[in-house]
Each structure stands twice: as structure tokens, then as C-alpha cells.
Amino acid sequence: MTLLQTAEQIQTMQIRGAGKIAREAVAALRDHAETLPRTGDVAAFIREMEHAASILLGTRPTAVSLPNAIQMVMRDVRTARTEEAARRILREKADAFIWSSRTALDRIAAMGANHIPDGSIVMTHCNSKAALGCILEAKRQGKDIEVYATEVRPWNQGRLTIKTLNDNEIPTTYFVDSAVRSMMKEIDLVIVGADAITVNGAVVNKIGTSQIALCANEARKNVIVTAETYKFAPRTILGELIQIEERAQNEVLPDDIAATLPFVRVKNPVFDVTPADYIDMIITEAGALPPHLAYTIMREYLGWGLDELQNQFLGARTGTEFR
Ligand SMILES: O=C(COP(=O)(O)O)[C@H](O)[C@H](O)COP(=O)(O)O
Description:
isomerase; single chain; Rossmann fold; 44% helix; alpha/beta; disordered C terminus; binds ribulose-1,5-diphosphate; 7-stranded mixed beta sheet; Four Helix Bundle (Hemerythrin (Met), subunit A)
């Protein structure tokens, strides 16, 4: 698959979920480099790779895993002295990111499973590899668990979730998103994934997550967020807000019906923000932490100083828009 094809698949959601988007984008960068002729001109190579990175960055705006992963790969490429060194660094960093991303999922699954008691009912939302990993690991350990899964309008990612749960013989209850509060009394805990986590511990995830967290809080049920460390958004330290992706109206209301309703406006935000106060714990590969410690992850695990953030990273999202 070419880089442009990967970018298109991310934008059209054939490739989706924050972790997978990051892994596929990095693999696309690595493979794109192999298609470029060797000229010996390191500056031209870096320019071409920056352009490729900007195309990927323009695909979806919310999942911070995408710019974080690209930054991890491109950071040392930018200072390479020869084209060969730049190519080698790119390859090594890309492979290392993909490997560590998979390892992170395994660690999160092991830790998350410890928080799922035998005999419990877990509610989940959307289709998160990190969240599902914990549930599958709990099942693998022989725990008798059930899952309550939402539909996830308008893209129905819940169907992917219930397919995985069914394939793993986990008893599952499926319902429309608006039934969440009614179902809350029947479950024991909530486990979801994340697209981005801000410095104040707020979690950006699939639209509807904040309603689930609010209902869980009301019903005194724990909310666990599972997130690899590369889903923490360092630029929020500088005050930058996470952009909430708005997708096309016709994902919600078909064009032919919308055409008959000239006074009706359709909004389709696909992520929302859950404040830290509604989250009991964030499980990362570096351990489980209260959401208010998000800053420590940004400092210690992502390791980007403020200077670097200001000098390079702020510009990373202003690349070419992909259409
Ligand atoms: O909100 C979504 C996916 O939204 P979309 O379907 O719009 O991409 C997932 O909960 C997170 O991305 C985490 O997923 P993972 O744990 O797999 O990274």
C-alpha cells in the first residue's frame, strides 16, 4: 500500500482506532522512504519525508497517537548527516515504535485484567484495542465475565467489538448509545480506550464516553481508561487544545432527507472530553495512575522538553491537509 493509500484509509476510517492509526502511519512512512530514489542529498530526503509526514498528519485531527508517533520517528531523522543515516534511523525508529506499541498493549492487558474481578460485568464503548485487550486477558485467565457494549452511532464500531467478544465466547449485551444510563445499574465497571489525554488528565475518546462516565459517577461505578503513553498530548502543557473531529453530516442524516429539511442543521462531532474527575484510573504500559498524574507521563515517558515542544512540535499539525 502506498503512503497516499494509507492516508486515505485513515481518513475514510478503514484504518481506525488511535493505536492502529499510529502504527499504520509509521509503517507507511517507513515504506515510503524505500520508494524514494537514493540521491545522496540528505536535505532533499528529509524534505520529502516531512511532506509525507504532513500528509499523514492531515488525515484525522484528534488522535494524538498520530503526531506523537510521527514525531518519535522523525525527530532524529531531522538531524541525520547523511541520507543513508537518515534512512537507517527512520527504519529503526519506525520498527521500534511498532514493536513498543504492541508490547504496551500486552502490558496494559495484563494490568487491566487485574482490575476486572471474577464474576463482573464490564461496560465498554466504541472499539478500543487497549480496552478489549484487558477484557480478553481477564477471560483468558479463566474469569467469568460479561460485557455490555454500545452501538456507537453513526459508525457502529460497537459491531466490531461484539464480534470480537462473541468470537472469544464472552457473553455480551448490546444496546443503543442512549440506553447507557438505563444499563448502568446492571454493570460493575466501565473500561474504555482513549484518543488523547491532556495535561490535566481529561480523556478524549469516542463521542458518548463523557456521558457514560457521568452516569458511572452517578451510579458509583469505576471508570478505567486504557491508554498507551503515546496517547498523552504534550502540547496541552503549552495550552493547546485537542481538536475534536467533526465528520460529514451525511454520516448522521442521509443527504436526500437533509435536503427536505432546510431549517435543520446536523452536527457530527466524533469525540468528546471526559474531565479527570470522572475517571478513576488510567492504565498505561508504565503502570496505572490517577488521571491527575498525566503530566508525569508526558515528562518521563514521552520525554520531550518544553523547548522541543515549542520549537518543533507546535508546528507538526499545520501540515498539508489531506483530501
Ligand atoms: O475512540 C476510539 C476510536 O475512534 P474511531 O473509530 O473514530 O477511530 C477508540 O476508543 C480509541 O481510538 C482507542 O482505541 P485503541 O485502544 O484501539 O487505540
